HlyD family secretion protein (Marinoscillum furvescens DSM 4134), 416 residues
Amino acid sequence: MDRKIKKKKWTLKRILTWGGAGLFLLFILYSFVFADGGSRLNVEREKVNIATVREGEFREFIPVDGSVLPIKTIRLDAIEGGVVERKYYEGGILVDKGDTILKLSNNDLLQNFVREETQAFILVNNLENTKLSLKRNQFDLKRSLIELDYQIDQAKDAYERGKELYKEKIISEQEYLNLKREFDRLTDSREIQIESTRFDSLNARLQIAQAEATLQRTRDNLEMIKKNLDNLYIKAPISGRLSTVNAEVGESISTGQNIGQIDDLNGFKVRASIDEHYIARIYEGLKGTFDFAGGTYELEIAKIYPEVANGLFAVDMAFTDTIPDGIRRGQTLQIRLQLSENIRAVQIPRGSFYQTTGGNWIFVVTEGDGMAVRRNIRLGRQNPRYYEVLEGLEPGEKVVVSSYEGYADKDKLIFK
């Protein structure tokens, strides 16, 4: 008896046919649902921050911290070394110009002063003796010349009378020649006496000049040592606040050693540290502002220190107008350092999105506010509150500025 063979309902061919049709339908459905492209992510609207793109005044500035310092600080260094004999003031108080802060003692310096002073006295005495000797020689010369002139007059008279008598043959030739020789001798003696006295006088004046020069040098040395003795008294060069005095009674202080400093309280400056990234854009005259005690005050860069340490360089800033009441040395100020003038610009608030996008793209909220779409943008300058938008956004549009963690590979955010 023939058996009826039951035909299989799901053959391999049929399975493949229906499977292919199903895949095709799924593809059509996927294409329909995601026809507008990109991957999506459902997010809760309350968990994102949305900001509006605006156009307005934009000023590029960077926040820097500045420390208040006195306008001038004078170091107190020991000009002469010595042992601290007395300490007049402790640090932290106000002093007036000329106040003695420390007194040092230096026996070697004192002995040098005594030796130089004694040498000066000796030189003064020698100089006075030389001058007296010159005066005495001048008086002796006058006395000798008077005596010689008297003798010459007598010899001249005798010589002239003898000359007449010799002509009349009253005296012999020998007597006449003796009278003539005596007159010539006295005349020559007078010339020699004058020349000798002139030489002695010149020599004495030279000795006086040398002695006076030596005495002047000795007096200069004495004056220098006297100033060095005065430098053993360390005094305040200006009025101000004395810092800690780094010396105690009995301590040995070497020449040039710093023992403290005085702050000039007639004004203040602010020293700020700036990231080296901005070094090419910082110049003297650049302005900054800070808030203090309910008011806003302006500073101006007065000096730039070119040394870079740990990625930072320093500037000194001066108050351009009023110094705030109550400001103190060492106080820290938060300064807004202005890097550009005010300009009109499209801008968006700063946000955590920048850490993910680097400012190259952003999620822009659609008109219905139901989702946000990824869009490429280009940002320019920035300040602590806003980014300048150069391309990709228009004023009035809304953007997501909160963190994009987990959004980096998404094209759309669907708000729930």
Remarks:
- Confidence is low (pLDDT under 50) at residues 31-35.
- The first strand starts at residue 40 and ends at 43.
